[in-house]
Specification:
mainly alpha; 218 residues; globular; 2 domains; single chain; 7 helices
């Protein structure tokens, strides 16, 4: 731990704690949810037409959380100290949010395996959707600043490109947030909603990256 703290790493003890929580939830679920249990991932009327086997469903979160920690750790080591100082305040909460969504989803699967009436995955959808909506509005209205705004591996060439990128990313985040709220409201099923989590987080970042590349070529 002392070695980690001395390096320019985005991964903190709190992030490791979130991974430990996810693993603990997974362990409880493997012991308490029957091995033959299937999660209803999508409903067609009153019939589940898409189901996830217990072991497959419960494996995704630990693997994803571990991959996120490894990816952000490598990213932190690749950044220069100056770039790290400018981006840490964005990447740290971003990783916390992603790991929190993973842990909440795993807890939702545990509760669903128990037959609980509390649909935590839908609640997570509402919560994440609102966070993305707010982030979208903030990014759309943001003005260029040395430390605020999107942080990408390459520079944004001009003020016009910066504004275009942030408006495109803001609109994408807001759209993704509204989409998640709609999916949670209409209760489309665990599978569609979890896939929605991934799309809502990844797609706006891709939109921002593509926009900066296109803007730099103009």
């Amino acid at each position: 731990m002392a070695y980690l703290s001395a390096m320019t790493t985005i991964v903190t003890r709190f992030h490791l704690l979130l991974l430990a929580v996810t693993l603990a939830i997974t362990g409880v679920a493997l012991f308490r949810v029957p091995a033959e249990f299937f999660y209803a991932a999508h409903w067609s009327g009153s019939v589940a037409d898409w189901q996830w086997p217990r072991d497959l469903a419960l494996t995704v979160a630990p693997v994803l959380a571990s991959a996120l920690l490894l990816g952000f750790f490598i990213l932190g080591r690749l950044l220069t100290k100056n770039h790290f100082a400018k981006t840490q305040h964005i990447l740290d909460p971003a990783l916390t949010l992603l790991l929190g969504v993973v842990a909440a989803t795993q807890l939702g699967l545990l509760l669903a395996g128990f037959g609980s009436d509390l649909d935590l995955i839908r609640l997570t959808g509402f919560g994440l959707g609102m966070v993305l909506l707010v982030a979208g509005v903030v990014l759309f209205e943001a003005e260029r600043h040395t430390y605020a705004g999107l942080r990408l591996p390459w520079p944004i060439a001009s003020d016009a490109a910066w504004q275009l990128t942030h408006r495109a990313a803001g609109a994408a985040f807001a759209t993704a947030g509204a989409g998640l709220v709609a999916l949670a409201w209409f209760d489309v099923g665990i599978g569609i909603l979890v896939l929605g989590f991934a799309v809502a987080v990844v797609a706006p970042v891709i939109v921002a990256a593509v926009t900066t590349v296109l803007a730099s070529r103009r």
